[in-house]
Amino acid sequence: MNDGEFHSMLLANQKYKACRNHFMTDFTIVGPVIGILAAVDVILHIRLDLKKVRTKTNFFLAEPSTEVPMTAVVTVAVSTLLSFFLVFLIPIAWLTGLGSNLFWFTFPILSPPVVMWMLGLMLLSLGIGLHYWSRSVRQEMAASWAMSKTHQLVTTGPYGRIRHPSYASYLLCFLGLFLLLPSVVSCLLFLGFPGYYILADSEELNLMNHFGDEYRAYMKKTGRFLPI
């Protein structure tokens, strides 16, 4: 190997390391924004879950009208847990000053330009906000597979336009996280898109069995994930 070839390999290795270690995402902006939003969302869920436990409401486990494929359950679990982990790391990256160096294990595939990561921040913030809004409206009402005998159909707030705002919030977060942290690992978040679609389909059959014509009328006025 001559000096020219060695120099070219050295430059290529330096460029690879730069792409690997630096997303160009400004964590001094992203970190506090996502950290505050996520903390508020978590606090709300903890408060409402504790309230639900204290009320000791009698719940019954509702069997889905159709069996949910295990692949859908797995993809939803993997994508959702991964998104929680990445959201948790974002403020850590800011507080520790490590920035994008903290995400070396995700195997970055490109360094997002400002427009890209800013769009990702907007979508992720919107997703967390929608998640907070949907839970604050639903309050202690359980999910469709653990409804109480006095469970009422929630049709206010985001539920007035879309039937699954919580699921929609996850999909927004998945896309936002990928734009913020484009990597091999964050590509796994997209597994949640077909997974949540299948899960919502099964849940709607379950809700139709429980609420009957009331839910069918509600479906005609709302979109599944989008307000159309």
CATH class: Mainly Alpha
Major sheet: arrangement of strands:
1-2
| Spatial gap, N to C terminus | 62 Å
The general outline is globular
Report the average pLDDT across residues: 85
Main beta-sheet strand count, sense and barrel state: 2 strands, antiparallel
Give the helix proportion (percent range): 55-70%
CATH architecture: Up-down Bundle
Percent of residues in beta strands? under 5%
Decide which structural class fits the backbone. mainly alpha
Q: Which value, in Å, is the CA radius of gyration?
A: 21 Å
Number of helices: 7
Describe this structure in words.
By secondary structure, the protein is mainly α. The protein has one domain: Up-down Bundle (Four Helix Bundle (Hemerythrin (Met), subunit A)), CATH 1.20.120.1630. Helices cover 64% and strands 3% of the residues. The chain is built from seven helices and two strands. It has helices at residues 3-21, 27-55, 70-96, 114-138, 165-180, 192-211, 213-221, and strands at 59-61, 146-148. The protein has a two-stranded antiparallel ribbon. α3 (70-96) packs across α5, α3 (70-96) packs across α6 and α4 runs antiparallel to α5 (165-180). It is globular and about 55 Å long. The termini are far apart.
